[in-house]
Amino acid sequence: MNNQYNEKPENITEHRYLILDRPAGHVLFCLITIFYCVYCVLTPIFYALATDFPEEKDIHYSEGLFTYRDAVNKNYQIGVRTGSSTEFFSCKSSYLSPNLCEIDRKYYDKLKEHLKKNNKRTNVILEPKLYQQWQDKPAIISWFWQRYSIFGIDKRVIRVIIDGEEVVSGENVRKTIISNHDDWWINIAMSLPFILFTFVITRQVILNKEIKNEQ
Questions:
Q1: In terms of DSSP bridges, do strands 138-147 and 85-88 run parallel, antiparallel, or are they unpaired?
Q2: Model confidence band, residue 167 (pLDDT cutoffs 50, 70, 90)
Q3: Residues 67, 21: contact at Cβ < 8 Å?
Q4: Is a pLDDT exceeding 70 seen at residue 6?
Q5: Which residues contact 175 (CB under 8 A, 6 or more apart)?
Q6: Contact between residue 135 and residue 66 where contact means Cβ atoms under 8 Å apart
Q7: Number of domains in the chain
Q8: Within this chain, do residues 97 and 193 fall inside the same structural domain, yes or no?
Q9: Same domain (yes/no): 26, 91
Q10: Is it the case that residue 10 has pLDDT exceeding 50?
């Protein structure tokens, strides 16, 4: 009599790549989420609060011919050219803010009037049109070193004088810095959904909720 039969294993275990007894994919996703939350959300808010309007001894001055270049997200970076070298500056008030200088409102109004008289659209990005008007004109830019993140530091514009006219005033920049100090809770509120998401993901990985012991 043939007593052959098929035996099924009592325990079926799923092969997983683990880090600290947690699925590696979950842990890596959690670490990336935490890093993004800290580096791109909380750190910029911290450095915006830590930035004060500089004292005179911390202000630098650069002179040359005004120029500009395209930056990311349809922003433009201003600079001065001296001979064969060009020095560019930042108008960002914080790490995630757009690179927009605090140009005096009257220059925008004057440009809009000019566009209307020539039957051209006014609901466009005005900065490059202003910069084009100022291209190659004598410029003096005052600036200070502003830290935006753990690894990010740049030359923050304080004041811009082009062809003898002050187009960006230090007072407007001061108001922007003070505004960042006063409105930090708005940035926290806007970031709250992602912060909560990071907390939930971290809690799930720590409690190992996604892992079932198979016996």
A1: unpaired
A2: very high
A3: no
A4: no
A5: 102
A6: yes
A7: 2
A8: no
A9: no
A10: no
Q: Are 111 and 129 in contact (CB under 8 A)?
A: yes
> Do residue 38 and residue 134 come from a single domain?
no
Domain with 125 in it: 54-176
CA distance 44 to 94: 6
The residue-averaged pLDDT of 117-132 equals 90
pTM of the model: 0.74
CB 175 within 8 A of CB 186: no
In sequence order, the 6+-apart residues with CB closer than 8 A to the CB of 55 are: none
Judged on CB neighbours under 10 Å (0-12, 13-18, 19+), 111 is middle
State the average pLDDT for the chain.
83
State whether 123 and 146 are in the same domain.
Answer: yes
DSSP state of 148: -
* Residue 102, token pair as written in the block: 């605090």
Assigned token pair, 82: 């001296």
Domain shared by 108 and 195, yes or no: no
Q: How far apart are CA 23 and CA 128, in angstroms?
A: 50
The answer on pLDDT for 36 being more than 70 is yes
**Residue 93 has which token pair?**
């008030």
Cα-only R_g, the chain = 27
- The encoded tokens of residue 77 equal 């970076």
In a shared domain, residues 34 and 125:
no
Q: How far apart are the first and last CA of the chain?
A: 34
Most confident of 30-34, 50-54, 198-202, 206-210: 50-54
Supply 75's token pair. Answer: 């922003």
14 has a pLDDT exceeding 50: no
Domain check: are 74 and 27 in the same one? no
